[in-house]
Amino acid sequence: MIKKIKASKSEKLIFIFLILLAITTFCTYFIVKNKCLFVKNIDPKNITFKNPNNIAVLNAPCGNVIIELYPNISPNAVQRFVTLIRSNAYENIAFHRVIENKLIQAGDLEFGKKGNLDYGKIGTGKSGLGTIKSEIDNDFNYTKGSVGLARTFKNDTEDSQFFIILQDEPLFEGEYTPVGKVLYGLEVLKKIKSDKRSEYILRPDFINSFKMLN
Prior knowledge:
By secondary structure, this protein is an alpha+beta fold. Helices cover about 20% and strands about 20% of the residues. It contains 3 helices and 8 strands, in the order αββαβββββαβ. It has an 8-stranded antiparallel beta sheet. It starts with 8 loop residues before the first helix and ends with a strand.
């Protein structure tokens, strides 16, 4: 006859502790793995916009980023931006430059395409449409969520690349061509992959789609 041995109180506590540890480890892994878990995805169909024709919707890995464009401030830059959006040129393009909680940059159509990244040249690519003249507006405030066209160190070199700032950047005022501002989705942008060691990202996140609302 086999005699049953009762677990001591300390053994029971250890067993409970191990179970709780396993649950905590699993939950932590799930949360870390799913970086989008607590990010609310905004559906633009549920929003009434004052100027719907000027609304663009960028879909990133964690959801939608809704941007209002400002053609009255930068007509040529916005026209170029809309042309590229409507031609689906930005789809599967990398967020190749990311400074955590500060700035994201994308739009290298030549060297930033998913499946055809060129890490040696990314950030220097062009659209094939040529550059456009800078439309600097000294009165435009580069506050959090502002969207501007990237350029080289010289003016009049804007093309397809754009940036979005995640904090106020007063030093950008009078320096870069503004094209719009994020209305919804800043938390989505903050989840885009960054690297503390470098602004340029190895195995970056990509734009899923970029569409005009109308």
